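input
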Amino acid sequence: MRRLYRAAESGSLDGVLVCFDEHGPVTPVPAAGRGWWPKVKAVCAGSDYRDQAEIQAATAAYLRRRNAEARRDRVERRAAQQVRRRKRQADRRLRAAASPSP
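output
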């Protein structure tokens, strides 16, 4: 077989070289034995599993974060309102000082 391949590659073969695959098609067929899956099935909580302490802790953490964000927004809004109010008061004072008194 190797002699025929070498003859075909060098061009000294005076015929046609035909090869047949004797192995056949390779199909992924599951077989018993080793595999990639874990040896032991993982223990999972059911869909109706309820641990009140975990639920309360998660809810409290969510509410703390939400309240902290809301508080931060309120403080920023209040600071912006104070800046605008002081600016309006200063503008009123300047207009009052610039307008002629009757």
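quick obs: Helices lie at 2-10, 52-98.
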